[in-house]
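User: I'm new to structure prediction. If I give you an amino acid sequence, what do you actually give back? Let's try with this one:
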Amino acid sequence: MKRKKAGIWLLLIATIMLLAGCGKEDGVLIFMSDKGSSSREGIDVIQEKLTAEAPDLKAEFNYSPLFDLQKVLVEYAAGGNSIVILPRETVELYGKDGAHIVLDDYFDQADYPDGVFESGVLKDGEKDAVQEKHLFGIPVKDMKMFQDAGYVPEDMLACVLVNAPDKDAAVKVLQKLTEG
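Assistant: Good question. You get back a string of structure tokens that encode the predicted 3D arrangement of the chain. For your 180 residues, that looks like this:
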């Protein structure tokens, strides 16, 4: 029975991976999932503001109201996402393998101390991530667009993925979300 269940999960993941690239435009896809109180209305307000104020960034939320670690794994691996907004412990778990870019060059660590922690960094030519302390995530509670929308979930971080299709565009979206 376990074997059959594992086979079904593998088939589901493979199907999602195949469909992940179908019909997507260039732009910044933001995957978000929250264990606590989810607010689709808040996300819709943020999406509208992003689209109105920065249409050239083509940012779009890929929101999952049900938090599931297996879904998160698929979104990290094959979702085509540029930014993830997830609970801190999930970000730290996946970050150990070097899943996020270091944000030190784009944001001041002193402004976001809750986003500074030890996590994996992939160095050129190295196969394994090296653990270093940097700014890896921007706390959602410190992001002006979320504050303006009245949706400020606690203990959530926004991070740019190392496999983001366009890291520069992803950082610009993160800056826009933060500055309002």
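You can read the tokens as a compact description of the fold. Here is one thing that stands out. The mean pLDDT is 86.
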